[in-house]
Amino acid sequence: MADKIIRVLLVDDHQVVRRGLRTFLEIQDDIEVVGEAADGAEGVARAEELRPDVVLMDIKMPGTDGIEALRRLRELANPAKVLIVTSFTEQRTVVPALRAGASGYVYKDVDPDALAGAIRSVHAGHVLLQPEVAEALLAQEDAGSGTGRGNTLTEREREVLGLIADGRSNREIARALVLSEKTVKTHVSNILMKLDLADRTQAALWAVRHGVAG
User: Fold this and answer.
1) By the 8 A CB rule, do 129 and 94 touch?
2) Global pTM value
3) S-S: 160 plus which of 27, 85, 187, 196, CB 3.0-4.6 Å?
C-alpha cells in the first residue's frame, strides 16, 4: 500500500493551523504530511525540494501570498495539486486562486473526513468546487468565450470536455473512451487552446454553462 500514500505539504503562516491540519491528517492511513512552510516563498521552495502530491495552501500570508506561490509553482511546472485552505470570508480571493490553477478549496474548519476526502479527490485529478465559488466563477466568465468557440471542437473533444465537467481525471476519461492517457492529454490541451481557457476548472465551468456537461 506504500505506493498509494498521498504526500502532502502544509503551507500556512499560522503554526496552530498547521498543527491542526497535521493532527487531522495523521489519522489517515493513506496520507502523509511530508513538510510544512510558513509563507508562500518557503512553500514554493519546499514543494520543489519535497515534490509532494498535494499542497494545502493558505491564501493570505505575509510576503508571498498563496496566489503568487501558486503562480510560481505553475511557472516551475511543479506537478503538485494545490488545494486552497481558506475561510468563507475570503471567497473573493479564492476565485483568482482557482484561475491561477488551484484544484479546489476547503474551509479551515473542515472536519477530518472531509479534508481527507478533498485531498484524495484533487490527487485523483478532480476539480473540487463549492457551489458558491462555482457560481462566482460563472458570473465572471467573459462573454467573449461564448458558444461560438465550441463549434471548433471535434466530436471527440466534446466528449472529453463533457467528462471533464463530470469531474473525471485523465485516467478515468481514458478508460471511459478507451483511449490512452497521452491521447486524452492531447485532447485536453486542444480544448483549452480552442476555447482560450487556462485550465480544467475553466473548461468544466464552460461546459456546464454551454450545455456540454453530461
Assistant:
1) no
2) 0.69
3) 187
